[in-house]
Amino acid sequence: MCWCRDHGPLPVLIRAMLTIAQLLEPLCRYRTNEVVVTSMSLVHPWTRLSQHTLDLALPDSKMDHVTGLALGIALARPDRDVICLIGDDNRPRTPGGLSTILSACMTNLTLILIDGRHLPIPGDPSFTPSVVNHSALAEAVGFEQVFRVEDAHKYAQSVPEILSLTGPTFIHAIVPSSNKTPAMKGHTKDALQSPISLADSARKVLDTLKLN
Amino acid sequence: MGLTDRISEPLFQVATRHPSIKLITVTQDSEAFAIAAGLWIGGASPFVVIRNTGLLESGEVIRSTVLRMAAPIPMLVTGHGYDEITEASVTPEDLPTTELLSRSDVDSAAVLTEPTLAAWGIPFSRCGVEDDPVAAISQTINDARADQCAGAVIMARSLS
Asked: Is A73 in the B-facing interface, judged by CB distances under 8 Å?
């Protein structure tokens, strides 16, 4: 198996973790005609990699809203796979949204939750490892395809297989994050200043889906 | 799609049996609007049925999806508390002052429903006991499609 499925507690001294770029680049490389929905701080790094007509960015929407939106697209277009990239900013509301996805009984949705974890600094007593095990949570709600990815190389090799799975699929990606790491912070404002409005962006995806 | 309650229950029962309507229920009111926006992007024609208390909870998702996308989502908002405010000699047009909202004989959800829709720029109509609910729902759906914007009908009457 090329990814981690065990749900044991992470060691406090986290080794070299998957970066946002290492997470998104293989996804962009192997993505074909899937709809990709991004939100908040993930909008900017994904936009730098992809300008696909089926990309939909919601820079100021919360996680549950974005997963709901992705679910709606997946329900309307069961012939089309939908990938939804979300941050872990809205943890307490996750189980309800996940159970709605399962209740919908559709197989074409992949949720990728980016779990930004602060890198431990030796001697820094302020470091507190994340305590929410999102992959275990998804499994407990009833997701059958649940993966926790941490290793960049193994993950990159696994992406084609992950994308070919019958969903719904939940991927818990653990990436480094800190207040000094621009990968997870500070891009929402840039994304909000996009020259294309969300209305135009949504229309573009709608029109593209109509044609295909 | 949405969450059922005492007023909308008959509508959900009809939708369950309808051959061409797919009923989608949610775990919390605000989910309905995000899913509806996604359904619209996917080419479907969603109709949201939601409690007025749920509407008040859903402001952020309505703002960030339905309104930001200019998604023409029609919705039925159940009018809980409208009977009570009528009995209390209050109308939905009365200003929602602190004094009014804190009265024990007034359902504040009913007082706040219409000002909230107005504040969010969502055109709405009210369907009372003397009105035809089928016609009101049809009008709301047609208006949303014609105007290409969200619209609401407040169901201030029973559907039984």
From this structure: yes
